[in-house]
Design a protein that fits this description.
The protein has helices at 20-34, 47-51, 127-142, 162-171, 199-202, 222-229, 238-243, 254-259, 294-307, 334-342, 355-367, 380-389, 405-411, 422-427, 433-438, 451-465, 468-480, 485-499; strands at 4-8, 38-44, 53-55, 60-61, 87-93, 99-104, 153-157, 180-185, 193-194, 215-216, 219-221, 232-235, 264-266, 317-324, 346-353, 372-376, 392-395, 415-419, 444-446. It is an alpha/beta fold. The longest helix is centred in the first third of the chain and has 16 residues, at 127-142. The chain is elongated and about 70 Å long. The mean pLDDT is 96. The protein binds adenosine-5'-diphosphate and alpha-D-glucopyranose. Adenosine-5'-diphosphate is lined by residues 19-21, 23, 321-323, 350-352, 378-380, 383, 402-405.
Length: 506
Amino acid sequence: MTLRVLYVCTEVFPLLKTGGLADVSAGLPPALTAMGSDVRLLLPAFPGVVAGVTPEGPPLPLPAGGGPGLPSGVGPQTASAQGPAPWLQAGRITASGVPVWLLHAPGLYEHGGNPYLDEHGQPWPDSAEQFAWLGWAAALLGTGLHAAWVPDVVHGHDWHTGLAFAYLHELSRTAVHRPARVFTVHNLAYQGVFNAELRPRLGLPDGLFHWQGLEFHGQISFMKAALTYSDAITTVSPTYAREITGAEQGCGLEGVLLQRQAQLHGILNGVDDTVWNPQTDPLVQPGFTARNLKGKAQAKARLQQRMGLEPRHEALLFSVVSRLTEQKGLHLLPAAVDELVRRGGQLAVLGSGDAAIEQALRDCALRHPGQVALTVGYDEALAHGIIAGADVILLPSRFEPCGLTQLYGLRYGTLPLVRAVGGLADTVVDCSLENLDDGSASGFVFDELDVNNLKVAMRRAFALQRRPADWRAVQRHAMSLRFSWARAAAEYLRVYASVMPATPLV
Ligand code: ADP
Ligand code: GLC
């Protein structure tokens, strides 16, 4: 029997992307499919997503909460008095052929731009309803709304899908079909917490609103709903899976996670070889390999030119490709830049987000013209150009569930300089003498989140640069590492199996 997986998420590369979640939604489903599963994505019909999907078949109306045959008081009420009710449209991602359901809900998903934040960086005012409907659609599909395709597993990602688990909990009391429920935490810091008064509107019965349910300090928590009502919880690295059961990284939910520790699994993300491969990357030509790095030297020269950096091939070129937020620890960077430049290094930054971090980095660029460059914004081609052309990629993160750019850096021989936290601790090995000696070194790692530790790690990078043979050896080792989606998919299949032991996996 083929395992059917409903994969519920809010972004997918290249249609809509704000961060690593989109890369995961593009990489993991095909890997599960390659192992014999039948995977369909469910996404809100944001304009970017609609544009990249070819519809197939007639629309499927989505009953509101309390509709015919449904328990009363469960599920969101009609989104608006006027206009058509929400519906699902089946289709395929035009470029990849991956099957999807798109959730259309008039008025909820049509705004362009960032799917979560308005132009002032504030959450869209109807966030709770937007994602309640997503959860509701998942719960209805999961319990057999479309008889021709009933999933064995509903697999939701991040808080936006959290209410799916609460609704499934309620619907499962009477539904004939009860799918296994798996939830993946990509980032515990974003939780979807809303005013308790929304309960009737979202169709969340009182029986769910208590400290062992989805109530969180008197409010509704989508994240807690998922953590409480899923059969298994995964997160995107083994270290983060441990960290979130403690107060420092648990974001107030450590108690819930500790209680569910037996069902909590850390599965590292992979790298999509069709997008991030230095030999075949269409955005980085000519390509390169560990044995022939000529293309990398050219990528560095191109990058220096493109970002207005002096064309010094010997300059150790540090880089950042990131959301500029507290999470990424980039508030430390400005205080380390003068020393970085004094030692002969350069810095190329691509990112956007926190205005204060942006401004501090802009000041650095003004202070060091030709040595420090900042591009504010989101630019896929430049991201590839930086990851290919730089010598070092910086992730001094405060916390990092997995992190993908350090994995891309490793693949392109751009050594990651990271803080030992979350997925960074699981994927990068420091260039200490003993690690150099046994050939396991792949980057530069520091522990405490302060600027002196960051500077010391940078000094280690300069020191390694002065030992070119060692640098090459570390680079070769980094480029030989493989974080494959096939390995991750096999681990997810084991988690699915653990919560539906009777079902053979093909
Ligand atoms: P997070 O999801 O926390 O932002 P990840 O490292 O998991 O961090 O994923 C970030 C993804 O977003 C990577 O694919 C990275 O290349 C991409 N990215 C981040 N910032 C930018 C940017 N300014 N322009 C283009 N791509 C970016
Ligand atoms: C989140 C995390 C990041 C992770 C990504 C994909 O955005 O911040 O560390 O790599 O999700 O799982």
